[in-house]
Give the backbone structure.
Amino acid sequence: MNIEIEWLYDSTECDQAGCSGGYSTGAIVRQDGTTILELIPAASCFGGDSWDREEVYKALILTLLPEVNLSEY
Ligand SMILES: [Zn+2]
């Protein structure tokens, strides 16, 4: 099985005083050429859609092994 992770970045600039805009990350994951995860980042001033590397790997584990009951302490 080949797993390919394409890391994605999105940023936005903002003209409003006091706002530094936003920065988001995400990834597209392919298994043997087929897209199995699409976590598309969308930056905005108020958070937006973003997945850090831990969240991407966790989503990947649960996508590849849906029967896994993942607990964290
Ligand atoms: Zn803004």
Observations:
- The pocket of zinc ion is lined by residues 14, 16, 19, 21, 45 (CB under 6 Å).
- The mean pLDDT is 94.
- Residues 3-64 form one domain.
